[in-house]
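input
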Amino acid sequence: MAATAVGDTQSPATGAFSAIGTTNAVLATEPTALADALVIARRHLAELDAAVSRFRDDSEVSRLAERARTAEAWCFGSDVFLDHLDAARRAARLSDGLVDFTVGPAVIASGYDLDLDLVRARVTFTPSTRAATVTGWERVVRTGTRRVTVPRGSVLDFGATAKAHAADTLAALLATSLPGGFLVNLGGDVATAGPAPDGGWRVGVEAADGGVRQVVAITDQGVATSSTQLRRWATSAGTAHHIVDPRTGLTAPTVWAMVTCIAADALEANTASTAAIILGEDAPGWLERNGVAARLERADGRVVHTTGWPLPTDIERSNT
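output
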């Protein structure tokens, strides 16, 4: 699922590229800044991939997981690794542990053990009949000496936070180093920084079929969508998706096809949308209590809005 930047009659300059297994875009209010912004963005995501990708044997995350296969393990993290660990810890606290970056073993057990294209190309996969152990984010110890210690069997998975936090970080970096304002869209995690276009940044809520359900305008906020419809694959037990409930160690029930949230930044928005998928029917109440503006869509197309979400226009209603 993606929330994509949508232009108007005075659209900012836009550049798109592929990295970290998804399609990304940078929008700039100053067209002359776009080329430099794309160079910075590519470099930033290359550093991210080297630090926290679960699909690279040489990443810091993978090397730590290999050490933890048989015993408690530790490493000295790079700046990028530690930054994303801190962001993931923030998400865990904000969600009361619903967004837990130690779900790696459970995600792998569900079949998401390779890059998604390879997972989908697999002829058959039989998931484990036993729930995988989720060690719990609070058991990951991070000290001021850059040392990170994890329990035996840990596989850190920053899939729920890495793109969103990178979007926030990159948008801020671009706005402080280049002229104008920027929108950064990393696979649907949208962050903004600097001066916005007149009327704000127009962001489309895009469904799995590519249709734009609604367009919302933001200025200095983040938008993110979590979905059970895109990162899916076939198993002998049925279709699985990539969001795991850390309370059970199993794939979260498919109550919502997609949940889109607006928050102070992309990390908070994606944390809320991921937690909502996990919570299922309890999601609207949880989002209301936490003051998160959200749009929740069921598989049959029925939509629920929480307080603060901008209601769709008549034209948008007719297109859904």
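quick obs: The CA atoms of residues 305 and 311 lie 8 Å apart.
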